[in-house]
Write a structure and sequence with these properties.
28% strand; alpha/beta; six-stranded parallel beta sheet; globular; seven-stranded mixed beta sheet; Rossmann fold
Length: 349
């Protein structure tokens, strides 16, 4: 059997290893893809660090990673819509296709949902296998580094466009790639004013390039809640996108939200959070939208149109493109909280 290089979490501890393993064989409903570019997600950083969440979820040994693009080299006998030679990106949500939720057109929150590179072998490898349903066909001329980040970009498209934002003020909490991509989508979507709140000057400067009207470093400007409320004539913003999962950001997000406004929740808290339910939700008449991944495939269609039109440019968020075998450099850049100089990191094969 032919071999390939892969980044593997071999043991339940910090780090990962570059190993040689068998090239996987696709089942009747799967496709085998030669990976051209793959990007590092915050989830991958959690797995690399081997934090509490990873310890409870990940079963070693495994190849991780879930954001990638590549060329299809082999298809299973039941695959109809994808052929060898197609240039595809991967939808990381693997639905069962049979549960009530899937049949209701909500495959992205399938009752039996599995995640590529979390619940299955992933894409940090020279080859990866995915179900046909998860293969999104790209234009041949799409740059691989852009094709590889469509999965996380799709998160931002789904989040920012989940409610009417045209002519509305917004506050985006979180200056990681998800928040930065969302800033770009909100700008294209016609938001009248975008406050981007975060913790890293490097990332906040990218946010300005993505279309933020005003950036706020929450470590340096502690009275930002009052500032945002005053800047919106005492009302608060129409829409909040919470992209960080930090408890204080969630609480402050509701504080800056106007009465009757919409709070869109994407960031995942590391633990339970405290919230004054009556004051925050009921008396404010707040609308809340929970976001999990991307809609299959409504989000992908919107994203394709935005990228093809050139109105949405994700390039500023992609700060590094590195060789695959330099993966440790990529993780070190992501985990460096002291001299933070990275947003989205793409690895090229």
């Amino acid at each position: 059997m032919s071999k390939m290089k892969a980044i593997m979490k071999r043991e339940p501890k910090m780090g990962a290893e570059l190993v040689t393993v068998d090239i996987p064989e696709p089942s009747d409903s799967e496709v085998l893809v030669k990976v051209i570019a793959t990007s590092i997600c915050g989830t991958d950083a959690h797995i690399y660090k081997w934090d509490k969440w990873s310890q409870s979820r990940i079963k070693t040994p495994m190849v991780f990673g879930h954001e990638f693009a590549g060329e299809v080299v082999k298809v299973g006998k039941n695959v109809k819509g994808i052929k060898a030679g197609d240039f595809i990106s991967a939808e990381s949500h693997i639905p069962c296709g049979h549960c009530k939720v899937c049949k209701n057109g909500q495959m992205h929150i399938c009752t039996n949902l599995k995640i590529l590179g979390v619940d299955t072998q992933g894409c940090f490898a020279e080859y990866a296998v995915i179900p046909e349903i998860c293969a999104w066909k790209n234009n041949k001329d799409m740059p691989p580094h852009i094709a590889a980040i469509q999965e996380p970009l799709g998160n931002a498209v789904y989040t920012a466009l989940s409610t009417d934002i045209t002519g509305r003020s917004m506050a985006i909490f979180g200056d990681g790639p998800a928040g930065l991509f969302s800033t770009g989508v909100a700008n294209v979507g016609g938001a009248s004013r975008i406050f981007l709140l975060g913790t890293y000057e490097f990332n906040l400067n990218i946010g300005k390039r993505m279309g933020a009207t005003e950036t706020i470093n929450v470590f340096k400007e502690t009275d930002y809640v009052r500032k945002i409320i005053e800047a919106t004539d005492g009302d608060g913003v129409d829409v909040v996108l919470e992209m960080s999962g930090a408890e204080k950001a969630i609480q402050d997000g509701f504080r800056v939200l106007r009465k009757g406004g919409t709070f869109v929740a994407f960031g995942i808290p590391s633990d339970e959070i405290r919230l004054n339910f009556a004051e925050t939700l009921i008396f404010k008449g707040a609308n809340i939208i929970g976001i999990n991944g991307r809609e299959m495939f409504r989000t992908w269609i919107k994203m394709k149109e935005l990228l093809d039109s050139k109105k949405l440019n994700p390039e500023p968020v992609i700060t590094h493109q590195i060789p695959f075998d330099k993966f440790r450099d990529g993780f070190e850049l992501m985990l460096d909280t002291q001299d933070h100089k990275a947003a989205k990191i793409v690895m090229k094969l």
